[in-house]
Design brief:
Structural class: alpha+beta
Largest sheet: 5 strands, antiparallel
Number of helices: 4
Distance between the termini: 41 Å
Shape: globular
Strand content: 25-35%
Number of strands: 7
Radius of gyration: 19 Å
Strand order of the largest sheet: 1-4-5-6-3
Length: 162
């Protein structure tokens, strides 16, 4: 698993009449964190696009637990819990305030596409190589690969013979 934190200070212009961060700004917060995480990994969106590969959002989900407000210092946490597969990568997010209260959770499903055709393309090998060290064999197993059997785990009591 890969994790990266980015801090963002809420600006007045990002709030609504109730003093809460306007819901549409969370997509931008996710993008800032995702871009910084890639930068930390040595991956450049700019270089990726220069090579003819884009990463549009295929899906976005946001769950609001508590409001963020003007001048809050937010920690936006990006989590890659599963390796990128095929042409897609799932980024998960958690947003905390300075009191370490979980305010928001979400995810973006990003799709690698050819900038020329707009069609999905395989994840570039250079990106796969940068992400691979963060995942174990069990985490990189595809959805059709059965998990490895535990070797020393005791059998559940319900399955033991009496």
């Amino acid at each position: 698993m890969y994790q990266s934190d980015t801090q963002i200070r809420v600006r007045y212009a990002e709030t609504d009449q109730m003093g809460y961060v306007y819901h549409g700004n969370y997509a931008a917060y996710f993008e800032v964190c995702r871009t910084e995480a890639f930068r930390q990994l040595g991956i450049s969106y700019k270089a990726l696009e220069a090579d003819g590969v884009g990463m549009p959002v295929g899906e976005i989900r946001t769950r609001f637990r508590r409001p963020a407000r003007y001048d809050d210092l937010l920690t936006v946490r990006l989590l890659l819990k599963q390796p990128a597969e095929g042409s897609r990568v799932l980024f998960e997010y958690e947003i905390y305030n300075e009191a370490q209260e979980l305010l928001t959770e979400g995810h973006t499903l990003m799709v690698f596409v050819s900038m020329a055709t707009g069609r999905p393309v395989p994840i570039p090998p250079a990106i796969q190589a940068k992400l691979a060290p963060y995942f174990t064999d069990e985490e990189t197993a595809g959805p059709l690969t059965p998990p490895k059997a535990p070797t020393d785990a005791p059998a559940p009591a319900a399955f033991l013979k009496k």
